[in-house]
Write a structure and sequence with these properties.
The complex is a heterodimer of chains A (266) and B (269). Chain A contains 9 helices and 9 strands. In chain A, strands 1, 2, 3, 4, 5, 6, 7, 8 and 9 form a 9-stranded mixed β-sheet that branches. The longest helix of chain A has 25 residues. By secondary structure, chain B is mostly helical. Classes of the chains: A alpha/beta (266), B mainly alpha (269). At the A-B interface, helix 3 and strand 6 of A face helix 7, helix 10 and helix 12 of B.
Chain lengths: 266, 269
């Protein structure tokens, strides 16, 4: 980032050159030591799980449970929008397990042959109309998202929560007046929690996880569902642990955890 | 502008270690550019760039970066003068605060703006009550975010030039009867003109490429707040070729800006 303006460099009073050289050497040694320590800590040997942002809270507990059942296997979580994660996997990121928030995104990865085996659905979720706690804008239903004076956020169409939100809106015949498109559901949730947005469509599990937003009930027949597929990635650094993790997601203890965070069984 | 001067005509062969490490450094910068050129879908390029998405993003990027540059000149030059010449308590602290956006992650800058100017922010709430203006999710919000990140480039460049000035010219003008405003306008500004120009171009270039603060503070909506860098970010996840095409466009514009400034950087003494 560039040389700063000229003329700002002041002439330094001459110090003892020997002392200065010694300080430079100490500095180098420190920098290298810290860098080396940082690299050694970097996810070495951990099972790398790339997971949709909506799984954030549930997955922390799932990872703990998995680690308890498989001592010696650490789980490193990479949480982001499913679309971002899919792009990373397609570009060859060293990932063991991919958990997407819809089958279409998983399909993108499968289409370029980056999966080992076929994906299995391990949970389901549904969309919710969320507003900041207390509903300051007085939102009463999906139709209000068409009101231009409200600040409305959706997930980007490329991520599952955006696709599901648009499906729900289309089903209800609502053309929303959108003010921002967020890269993943947790970014949208944060904007609602901060009160920057009047309303947005997130997942039911997100509303459950946040004390600062509440859901406006949808009318019967409105809404949309999404399924969460899990798959072992081709060339996974640790395929055995990856398969064990996917199997664990389908086990009764994992289902119990997912249910507690508001996910439905597959 | 500052050409001339003494220039070494004798070329020196570099020590081997310097040549090897320096060459690796060059490769480090050339490699990503090469990869971009190699992966760009050249045949489809015109079609990829001639879409409404790209046109909207380009329009927003130009509007936001030029507004930020104008706003930067308006606030930044006086600010630079105060830092260089002013005598007030806490001047060092002010300079630190002004420099902060330069080293702060832009996303943090955007978050700070949100806490200050957002709807529930310290100032933003009062602003909405009084005027109905909401900065987040608007083009005005993009301009605010982009100005916050790019203004330090102008301030520091101009301040450096002001410090290097020979104050006797201004003193002479004053003894000849020029008022303080006249001295500033007719003597000081012309003397720092080269730095003013390069600072302005640099500020504009930074504003044109701003991403993190914009996304965090102003949101992301095509046609309203989605500037070119945000369009690249979005396209990377759905339409790689468009992302490459926009990236190429931005590299081209940035290179052109640096060429404009070649007196300063490309022909270093």
């Amino acid at each position: 980032m560039a040389a700063l303006p000229d003329g700002t460099r002041a002439a330094r009073p001459p110090g003892s050159p020997g002392a200065r050289v010694r300080w430079v050497r100490v500095g180098w040694a420190l920098v290298l030591a810290v860098a080396g320590w940082g690299c050694a800590q970097e996810g070495g040997g951990a099972l790398r799980v790339s997971a949709a942002a909506s799984l954030t809270d549930a997955l922390a507990e799932l990872a703990d449970a998995f680690q308890a059942a498989h001592p010696g296997t650490a789980v490193a979580l990479n949480l982001a929008g499913s679309a971002t994660l899919a792009t990373q996997v397609i570009e060859g990121a060293p990932v063991d397990v991919f958990l997407a928030a819809d089958t279409a995104t998983m399909g993108r990865v499968a289409a370029v042959d980056r999966l080992a085996g076929s994906p299995v659905v391990f949970a389901r979720n549904r969309v919710a109309l969320a507003v900041p706690a207390g509903n300051p804008a007085g939102v009463r239903g999906l139709a209000d998202l068409a009101r231009p004076e409200l600040l409305v956020g959706l997930c980007a169409a490329a991520v599952p929560c955006g696709a599901a939100a648009r499906a729900a809106l289309a089903g209800a015949g609502v053309r929303p007046s959108v003010d921002t498109e967020e890269p993943h559901v947790r970014a949208l949730l944060t904007r609602l929690e901060l009160g920057e947005l009047d309303a947005g469509i997130v997942y039911a599990t997100d509303v459950l996880a946040s004390a600062e937003v509440e859901a406006v009930p949808l009318e019967p027949g409105q809404g949309a569902e999404t399924a969460y597929p899990a798959a072992v990635v081709r060339d996974a650094p640790d395929p055995e642990a990856a398969r064990a993790f996917v199997a664990f997601l389908l086990s009764p203890p994992a289902r119990a955890i997912l249910a507690r965070y508001g996910f439905s069984p597959p | 502008m500052r050409g001339g001067g003494v220039r070494a005509t004798r070329t020196v062969r570099p020590p081997l270690a310097v040549a090897v490490l320096g060459g690796m450094g060059i490769a480090f910068f050339l490699l990503p550019l090469g990869a971009l050129l190699a992966r760009t879908p050249w045949r489809r390029l015109p079609g990829l760039l001639a879409t409404e998405v790209v046109a909207d993003a380009l329009r927003l990027s130009l509007a936001a970066s030029l507004s930020a540059t104008a706003l930067g000149l308006l606030l930044g030059v006086p600010l630079a003068w105060l830092l260089a010449r002013g005598d007030f308590p806490g001047r060092g602290l002010v300079r630190g605060v002004v420099t902060l956006p330069l080293v702060l992650p832009p996303v943090v800058g955007g978050a700070l703006l949100l806490f200050a100017l957002g709807r529930r922010g310290v100032v933003g709430g009062a602003l909405e009550q009084a005027t109905g203006i909401v900065l987040p999710f608007s083009l005005a919000g993009v301009v605010v975010a982009v100005t916050f990140v790019s203004l330090p480039f102008l301030v520091l460049t101009v301040e450096g030039a002001l410090r290097g000035l020979d104050a006797r010219y201004e003193a002479a003008a004053a003894t000849l009867g020029a008022g303080r405003w006249t001295v500033f306008r007719r003597v000081t500004l012309p003397m720092v003109a080269p730095s003013l120009v390069s600072g302005t171009v640099l500020t504009w270039a930074r504003a044109f490429g701003e991403f993190g603060a914009t996304l965090t503070f102003a949101g992301n909506l095509p046609g309203h707040t989605r500037t070119l860098p945000l369009a690249v970010f979005v396209a990377l996840e759905s339409d790689r070729d468009t992302a490459l095409a926009i990236s190429l466009l931005m590299v081209g514009v940035s290179l052109a800006v640096l060429l404009l400034l070649r007196d300063r950087w490309w022909r270093a003494p």
